[in-house]
Amino acid sequence: MENENMHRDWISIFNRLLKKPKSSLKEISRILGRSQKFLSILSTGGASTAYASYADSLRESVERILSTLIMYSEDTESHPGIFFILCNYKDAHKCDFHPVIKVFLEGTKSVYLLKIIEKVCSNAHMVRLKKEEEIVLLSELVKCSASADHLIGESAIRSIFGLYKRERGDAVFLAELTKTFQMRYLDLFVSKIFPEIIGNEDTQFVISMIQVLSEIKEIPILIIAHSASRECLLSCPPGLLDRMWARLENEKLPQEYLSGMKMAAKVPELFNINQFLRLLVKYTGMSVLYDQGDVLIQYINTVLISPVSVIIKEKKCINGIIEQTEKTIGNCGGTPISGVCLNTDIMVEFLEKLYRHSDGTRIEYCRILFYTGLESQKAYVLLLLKNKNIRVKWNALRTLTAYALDASEIEIVLDVLKTTENEKMKLWCLKILECNHRKVDASAVVVKDTQYKSEIEEILKRINN
């Protein structure tokens, strides 16, 4: 209720406080701290003409408050108020923040002032800085990054990071940013700074950085390295790759393990399919099983665009005769630089884990088989057509397009086509029939007016011609 009254009387309250601003800085900051949601709402504008006019008056008031606080920014009691407006009021950039930067450069180092500098550095539209001004600011921020106060040190590093992003490709900012690395800010570097550097710097610098970091046991190098591009990973020296693979083989923490697997999935030339599958089977944490399925699909998709291939050899019973079948995934339509024969036993072991666990992992199971089409799994895919989950069923149907079906298996698909009310499932049933050169009575297929209608009608025409 107190806040409601305060916001209703906002203009009169601040008119009173701004008559003697220097003695009111603490009270102004206190009110702004309790009004952050109100400031955010003001940024969105009004719904009616009458309200819009009143809102404009409130916005003018906020901008006057901010200008006044900036004018008195040498007093640390103004800093929280500036920060609250900066965080919640989208038009804060209309004010000139150069006086605040000047106060910072002259030696004032409050936590809120560093947070303001962080916001200013992170938003190029907030303050237009000349290169020489950025260099001076950078120098002062580097000093602050070593502060015993964790909050000041972190804001200083975030500010340097903001300047680095403004000046991409500038060696000075990159050098100073990397020098500020400290273990106490490891989370910040791992989650934001290292990925940004990896995404923007040249391959040799990134490899050198990863190499140095990989030698520090406490650093989660797999999380960092998985941000690297495929081209960068392919250029890594063998010793570095061996070190990262050794980390991955012994990793117990889910996030780091999955990051390492995503990294390996980018370069099947370096980590072959059987090595990859062994690590999927070896890791026993069921909480990441869905993600494991997803990362195997990423691996397979990379194989499809890379100069490697996976050879799948299986025994198949055709008309009572056991025959050896062989198919190849990958190759890019050319001659592969290497081909690896899939260890189907390990693949089946992993697929069984997916099949047994949940509907989500059963969908991943289907997606993997859509690419690999392991003959030993066909019967299990057909069983999934009885699953209650509609997404499991249509994923199973999609997967069956990768298989040649016999007459009895075709009948199962026809039965689904006749009984389902789901148009997407009808579409996949028809695609299976088309793949197996089987005709169907078009008059028996009721086609509803959905996004799939035209495609269903086209397939019906094709398979019956």
TrEMBL record:
Name the record gives this protein: Uncharacterized protein
